[in-house]
Amino acid sequence: MSVFAKATASRSARAAWTGVALAGVSALLLTACSTGTPTPSASEEPADTGDALPIEAGARDLTLKVGTILPQSGTLAFLGPPEEAGVALAAKEINDADLGISVEVVYRDSGDTTTDIATVSVTDLLSQDVSAIIGAASSGVSFTVIDQITAAGVVQFSPANTSPDFTDYEDNGLYFRTAPSDLLQGEVLGTQIAEDGASTLGLLVLNDPYGTGLAAATKAAFEAAGGEVVAEELFNTGDSNFDAQLSSIKAANPDSVAVITFDEAKVVVPALVGSGYPGDQLYFVDGNLADYSADFAPGLIAGSKGTLPGPKLEDDFRDRMLAVDANLADFSYGPESYDAMMLIALAAYAANSTEGTDIGEYLRQVSGGSGDGEKVTTFADAAALLADGQQVDYDGASGPITLDENGDPTEATIGIYEYGDDNKYTRIN
What we know:
The protein is an alpha/beta fold. About 35% of the residues lie in helices and about 20% in strands. The protein has helices at about 80-95, 115-125, 140-150, 180-195, 210-225, 245-250, 265-275, 315-325, 335-350, 355-365, 380-385, and strands at about 5, 15-20, 25-30, 60-70, 100-110, 130-135, 155-160, 175, 200-205, 230-235, 255-260, 280-285, 305-310, 375, 390-395, 410-420, 425. Strands 1, 9, 10, 11, 12, 13, 16 and 17 form an eight-stranded mixed sheet that branches. Strand 9 (about 200-205), helix 5 and strand 10 (about 230-235) form a beta-alpha-beta unit. The N and C termini lie close together (about 5 Å). Residues about 1-50 have low confidence and may be disordered.
């Protein structure tokens, strides 16, 4: 089941997600309040654009410096290469367009929540006067630095944060993401497990904002479909012994087990299957849906499934990513990272400014969030229209992107994947 979900925005109520299952399609309704319409800046040709800020026509001469805090180490390190490649590809295409804006990217490590690497990286990036920071991948890591970034008047744009708690976080209008809330992924995962015939479910959950939020949404969807969660075991980042949690899950004998972890899956999955639990009754999530061909015995998890936000990756985009990093073995959140960089550059172009606060004011608009603008899918096409003073609505490699007033995407696709005998996953829906 591939799910395409849309969210609509209202200016009168604060963020609230409601899950709806209809005709086999999971949809989410988002209601969100406005944080206030920014005051339009002066324009040589102020056009009547309704709620949209005006676009100043004319050539640009901008130098945009962007930092990244993506996982080069830690429990999500497997996501670092595709995310950095996505940013690098976008920056290359923007620079190759040669349309009055040049992009410099400074790459730094985010680590994970067991270290303070992200804070050190952010401090370094802010000292270099970056306009925006792309990352972190981990919701837990982003919560440790979001105040530091946004208080400095710098945009934080994550390609992979999925915690629902970001939706109504006080961020000065400077936090954005191209990944959907885990309320959507959890609904898709829980519904899929029930549709596959399971009536009981065990949950092994990372005890952080990502893990507990996704587990809660998965549990709610599974129970709404008539199932029962019979075991729910938590562990903390940095734990190395999972015997107690796995014993409890095995004792409950659930029909299926959802493994909501990061790379701890490399330890817990062989241990669980080694204890006699069937490897084809496991479910993975975006935090651990990875190539395990070098980690697990052949066939260990053949038939198991997992979920990952994002549309089916086009061959052309995959080839362009590989041209940036020929060693890529995983492409998870590469498209979302690419689009984050593109949107930041387009917002700077629209604002004719590299100030973080100005970029923040235009980000929603260039994504089509103001309801205006011509559809564009490349930076060159978008920049040409902006230089003429016209509005644009960018749709990118990660699909249709429309940011709402809280910086959340209002449309998303969740793919369903299945593992083969080689412990590699392929998209099945």
